[in-house]
Input
Amino acid sequence: MKRLRWPRWMPIDPYILLLLGTVGLAALLPARGTGADLASGASTGAIAFLFFLYGARLSTREAMDGVRHWRLHVTVLACTFVVFPLLGLASRGLVPVFLTDPLYQGLLFLSLVPSTVQSSIAFTSIARGNVPAAICAGSFSSLVGIVVTPLLAAALLGGSGGGFSADSVGEIVLQLLVPFVAGQLLRRWIGGFVARHKKVLGLVDRGSILLVVYTAFSEGMVRGIWHQVSPVRLAGLLAVQAVLLAVMLFLTWYGAKGLGFGRADRIAIQFAGSKKSLAAGLPMASVLFGAQASLAVLPLMLFHQMQLMVCAVIAKRRSRDPEAVASEEQTAPARTAVGAGGRLG
Output
């Protein structure tokens, strides 16, 4: 029997459907009491194990090789942790006309989250860009974000975030950074095993995010937080996020051109510098926002789907550029190495 595949013409990532289904489950059957404690503990353990596997998988040699293209990586980091947060701060002027204060806090937190890894690689590959640069740029952004994102959140959101303190930042370090470092230290002995079982890492990756979503939205249902969001506010949030994504796509593409980067590098910068990671943002939000986490992650979840749909269209158009077709033979080995079936996470 042939394996069923998701239709390529369908713009929605099937994993998004799982996320929406998890939200629906939390709405119908939210975790309460002991069940909520068990779900919270399970999600915390799953996220810690996930970052342990990330540390065991990442090759130190690959990371060092990527440092050679430092101008590109600095550009992506500047887009992710400087330009994005500035735009997030500017959106404060949209309260209360378009956004409520909790939705603004979630939007600002979204602007502080690191870039994606898998989808940046996949879209760069489809568009025939610099795939190795996208790999390193996404990886560096994720590593830097473990430390920079909670620090920026504490500085920009302060006490208004509902759970920001030195203790919450320390909790993120213990939950994300410490397991990652442990994985790096043990990589010599377990790295080969992890590399041979990539499907396990994928299952832990997706499963841990689903647990975090279920826990956060369950708490939101129990506390009645969702009564604070009206359809009009959701429409306003989507409009603001559409503008935010359009601005970042424009700045990363034409800004990279102004800095003298070639086409292949500009593609990597655009896809790595304009997107935000759901996998990195959700566990941080659950720690930093506490009871308000369900509203805080809503902008991130919506933006995640929006960026996948828009970037999929852009990547396909870039792949048909005359310059891309002419250079296909040079980029084919890199695309083959990465593969076009990567998860758009």
